[in-house]
Prior knowledge:
Elements (H helix, E strand, L loop, with lengths): L7 H8 L6 H12 L16 E13 L4 E12 L5 E6 L3 E7 L2 E2 L3 E2 L8 E6 L6 E7 L7 E4 L5 E4 L19 E9 L5 E4 L12 E11 L5 E4 L2 E6 L2 E5 L1 H10 L3 H12 L7 E5 L8 E2 L4 E4 L12 H8 L7 E3 L5 H20 L1 H25 L21 H18 L1 H14 L3 E3 L1 H11 L4 H7 L1 H6 L13 H15 L14 H9 L7 H11 L7 H13 L6 H10 L3 H13 L3 H11 L5 H10 L4
Parallel strand pairs: 1-11, 16-17, 17-19, 20-21
Antiparallel strand pairs: 1-2, 2-8, 3-7, 4-5, 4-8, 6-7, 9-10, 10-14, 11-13, 12-14, 15-16, 18-19
The structure holds ligand BES and zinc ion.
Amino acid sequence: MKYFYITTALTLILFSPxxxxxDQNDRKSQAILEMKRATDFHSFSKPEEAVxxxxxxxxxxNFDDRIIRATAIYDIDVRESxxxxxxxxxxxxxESVTVDGKIVEWSIGPEQPFIGQPxxxxxNGKSKRISIQYASDPAADxxxxxxxxxxxxxxxxxxxxxxTWIPCQDSPGIRFTYEAHVDVPEGTMALMSATNPTExxxxxxxxxxxxxxxxxxxxxLAVGNVEFRSVGPHTGVYAVPELIDAAEYEFGTMEDLLVxxxxxxxxxxxxxxxxxxxxxxxPFGGMENPRLTFATPTIIAGDRSLVSLVAHxxxxxxxxxxxxxxxxxxxxxxxxxxxxxxxxIMEAVYGREISEMLATLSYQGLVxxxxxxxxxxxxxxHLKLHLQSRNPDDGMTAIAYDKGYFFIRLIEETVGRxxxxxxxxxxxxxxxxxxxxxxxxxAYLKENLLNSDERLSxxxxxxxxxxxxxxxNCPKVRSERIEQVDANLAAWxxxxxxxxxxxxxxxVYQERYRFLSNLSDAxxxxxxxxxxxxxxxxxxxxxxxxxxxxxxxxRSHYAPSYNRLESFLINIxxxxxxxxxxxxxxxxxxxxxxxxxxKQARPxxxxxxxxxxxxxxxxx
Length: 620
Ligand code: BES
Ligand code: ZN
């Protein structure tokens, strides 16, 4: 692997946000061209020849035909010898392209699976600015258009879907600043991963700025009738009017999370941290769009019990958004660090008892998924992935998240928390607004932390990063409260503890989830009914608990839950819930019910979710 090295100090000065003189601007762009990025097989762009440094996006959003019509004007930084700049795109209608104001003959190459098409624009070593006038496709994969009296549009760009709504160098190693001018229908507000309005404009016109350089997967746009509420000096929530009160309460501790995070790993680099509650069709729990986390409404539980998801997305403001995985093969650098950081924020704000319960659940999820992946594709259990010629979405498993987490935790436990925290703080600081790949991380780790044979052999980096499964030195998590749940469950299943004697009411969500998700597959419908009648489980407002309940209901053929199951699947598009529920139906000979529900639900889902469900239900 080859990199162009520049000094870290220079990078830090050059990428500090704020006022930048034109001289600094020149040096800034040079630095961008020379970023230490690895080859990214999921992008056609050739950053060693020419890179974008700033985007000026002018767009109008049309719900009637589901099209975004836009002009993307990029400042570019090119090598003397450059003859073209290549951008990624999928199904964009390109209307015209100019270079420094002159119309040029652009070309589009053949489509390749997953990655789309290269848009090639002729330039020379002196070219400064390109402009692309285009329209998105009504079926663009990143976009979800919600119709009806409450129209809503949101984007999901990660991993490689930004190219379906903006022609861009869609590689996480390429960063650029942006500004945008967006026109939206009356009665809606536009929001981006940038400076945001807090009130609706009278003319449907909105302006945005993102002065810190970001990779394209963090480009985000949402349009809908939302309101804003401040919950702290740097924090606030956006939601539709029906949810704004609930959201204001649910996320009322966001400023505490932010303060705790800064206390751990240094100053927050993005000025504000707000959260947008999206329609339930959002395919993820959360997405760390800078300055504005996008979140599923399914974490509004009424009691702030699912706030660890906010801690996770906030943590990405350091791991991911500040220090970014160089390619999707290094995804664990984004997610593993973020799960670790999430747990540390949770520990700081809510105490170790809660964070260790979360770690226990993450361990269980990891063990289950490692077993499953080992059966089919053992290489996918390595932290360092090989996603060339595959959909980067395949890397979104518990490996990057939870094997990544336990690996980082092992390092912490080996060197002690104090040393580890100092190391991590320096790591974020020294690589801020830059990229990181697995090999460079290993070198940095060896140089700065694991500088003795003793530490190195205690950890066994190779086994964790390039080896299969879960190494035997995986840290052990102990949560007495979770052990107590397991004991209760065993006694209940053995018949020595009556349903009414379960301490259900005193359990927090993590305990309830543990109980329900560990019920034996053979649990009878009668016993499910007993639980439901005694503890009203099916009426819970906690969607994680409800999800675990519905999955067991399917496995137990507990028909009284099926109406709830159907409405859950029709209204909610969060893939983490959909996959296990549809799979449970398929595995228990209830495929017909699965197909029936899916037929009604599919039009509501985002492409990320239909992609997975089509495959699971063999409709692709
Ligand atoms: N960045 C991810 C979401 C993502 C990853 C989208 C890869 C597309 C491709 C986000 O931070 C995330 O991890 N979300 C999780 C929640 C979290 C608490 C584990 C999710 O949505 O389930
Ligand atoms: Zn994440």
